[in-house]
Amino acid sequence: LAMPQSWFPAIWSGVGVLVFYLMLWHLFFPVDKLSLIIPCGISLLGWIRIWKNVKISSFQKGMIIPVIFLILFFGLNMAETDFMYDSLVYHFQTIRWYEQYAIIPGHANLLIYFGFNQSWFLLGAFLNALVGSPTGIFILNGSFLGLAAIEWIFRFRFAVVNRNTMLMLFSIGSLLLLFRSVNLSSPSPVVS
Fold first, then answer.
1. Alpha carbon 168 to its chain's center
2. What phi and psi, each to the nearest 5 degrees, are found at residue 106?
3. Torsions phi, psi of 46, nearest 5?
4. Which end of the chain, N or C, is surrounded by fewer C-beta atoms within 10 Å?
5. How far is the C-alpha of 183 from the C-alpha of 185, rounded, in Å?
6. One digit per residue, pLDDT tens: the chain, 192 residues?
7. Distance between CA atoms of 156 and 162, rounded to whole angstroms?
8. Dihedral sign (CA 9, 12, 13, 14)
């Protein structure tokens, strides 16, 4: 039996397109509230299109409880802001710079972290603009790991229904490794 079509590849592709857009945007403008207009407009049109055509299968209905559990788990873990040494040294400074200035040619000669488009911090600056405070970066790791966990649970349920032992073991192992992560709210790109 073939696995039902997953919408996770579309989400990851959308994140990739968003990063590409932010890199282009940041060449000319700071990543601020103005940078939200185009991606939020396109996202809204996409959600409207998806919502009109959505059909929830019984397989997906069985995913509701695990997904709610994961949302609560990741939401509570992301609420505990934690700092790494690197966060205080350059993560927050880089994000703040991205929010205030476009890339300045040659600036990497002075401080390397400000001289290139680091996609993780561009996403952090974008989320800060989206939520309207400098706390957006804290939800980045948890959001990506939460999406991965939902995908693994989706695959685990499929493996159980189809009695696929290898996929069950892989899914359980991946989830156990994920739940050992204690610092989901870290702004560091190392966690994800």
1. 25
2. 85, -5
3. -65, -45
4. N
5. 6
6. 555 566 778 788 888 899 999 989 988 999 999 999 999 999 888 878 877 776 666 656 666 677 777 777 766 666 566 666 667 777 787 888 888 888 776 666 566 666 555 788 888 889 888 888 777 777 777 777 777 777 777 777 777 777 777 777 777 777 777 666 556 666 666 655
7. 10
8. positive
